[in-house]
Amino acid sequence: MRVLSGIQPSGSLHLGNYFGMMKKMIEYQEKEELFCFIANYHAQTSLSDGKKLAVGTLEAAANFLALGMDPEKSTFWVQSDVPEVQELAWVLSNFTPMGLLERCHSYKDKVANKIKPNHGLFAYPVLMTADILMFHSDKVPVGKDQKQHVEVARDVAIKFNNEYGEIFTLPEPEIDQDVATVPGLDGRKMSKSYGNTIDLFLEEKALRKQIMRIVTDPTPVEDPKDPDTCNVFQIYRLFVDKEQEAALRSHYEAGGLGYGEVKQELFETVRDFFAPYTERRNELIADKDGLRKTLAAGAEKARWAAAKTLRKVRKKTGLTY
Ligand code: ADP
Ligand code: TRP
Predict the structure, then answer these.
(1) Which pLDDT score, from 0 to 100, does residue 12 have?
(2) Which listed site, 106, 151, 212, 247, has its alpha carbon 20 to 30 Å from 315?
(3) Ligand 2 centroid – CA 79 distance (Å)
(4) Helix and strand totals (H; E) in the chain
């Protein structure tokens, strides 16, 4: 089975990115054929500062590698190093009804939040479709917010295949229900755009500060508390096994638990969990040429696969004459 996903290099990483997508991808490389890339074309829909995009791209690559992405076991590259995907996006845009794009929540949400839409933002799911179909992906692990985009890819693949035969594999989104939406400091979805994140690779002090900002209710220490409505608990449970989760649940329900105390424990847990990765990340960032070399090798593998798909598409659609 082929598994593919991408992540935008815009800004720092947070727990939502890690548990919603990266962790699963890293686990997949042990058992499936994994394709994973840094979606820098997609990041251009919200980032025009070239320097920031370039730095962010290398950092995103270092983050993924530090967390365990192994370029020997998987195909790992930067989206713009395989520009063939743009040609496929153009071809596929002719099989994408306007209504399909107009219905995309992520686009509608951004417009509702007063972001002035440009064509890139509107066409973003078509490029994502090209990413997915180019590599014949069976499964696409994403957070819940990206599910609809994978469904667009599936619809477009069906339309294309109806016209030209079985060219594309029909992809399926994969969403881990346990971490479908990691809540942020304020209980809304953890997201860069809400400024409610707990970031990976932070200095201890900054990490502690973020965790102490998690919003809790004013229930007095001695009273029983509801773990299911507590943001601290919802984040904590991502780090512990079922048994530890049950123990913490009982502690909440019994009363006598202070939020400050659980936050301190959560801080220590997050810090210790990511400490070894942070060290590795800093080494990788310090060797930019080494990183570029790793990415170039990944792009070469991806380009080979892309060229194969594109040859078929060009032939079927008459671009090869
Ligand atoms: P952000 O919302 O912070 O801009 P991205 O859109 O860049 O995050 O998301 C990158 C990946 O991480 C996607 O697969 C997305 O679904 C996943 N993801 C982001 N935030 C969360 C979250 N709070 N819970 C679960 N998955 C998330
Ligand atoms: N749009 C995705 C995000 O913002 C990133 C992405 C681009 C992607 N192309 C993809 C994810 C293809 C999965 C498959 O998170």
Answers:
(1) 81
(2) 151
(3) 10
(4) 14, 5
Instruction: Return the residue whose CA atom lies nearest to atom 16 of ligand 1.
Output: 143
Residue 124 CA, closest ligand 2 atom number: 1
- 226: which 2 tokens? 């509801």
Predicted confidence at residue 194, as pLDDT, reads 86
- Report CA 153 to chain centroid distance, whole Å: 17
Which domains, and CATH codes, for the chain? Answer: 2-182+288-317 (3.40.50.620), 201-282 (1.10.240.10)
Catalytic (active-site) positions: 110, 189, 192
SS3 173: strand
pLDDT at 156: 98
Low-confidence ranges of the chain (pLDDT < 50): none
Does the beta carbon of 121 lie inside 6 Å of ligand 2?
Answer: no
Q: Which residues of 56-74 are buried (b: 16+ CB within 10 A; e: fewer)?
A: bbbbbbbbbbbbbbebeeb
Give the span between the Cα atoms of 7 and 142, in whole angstroms.
9
Q: How far is the CA of 122 from the centre of ligand 2 (A)?
A: 14
- Residue 68: per-residue pLDDT: 95
What is residue 170's DSSP assignment?
Answer: P
pLDDT attached to residue 143 = 79
The per-residue pLDDT for 303 is 98
> Which ligand has the nearest atom to the CA of 134?
2
Under 8 Å between Cβ of 198 and 210: yes
Distance CA 38, CA 70 (A): 14
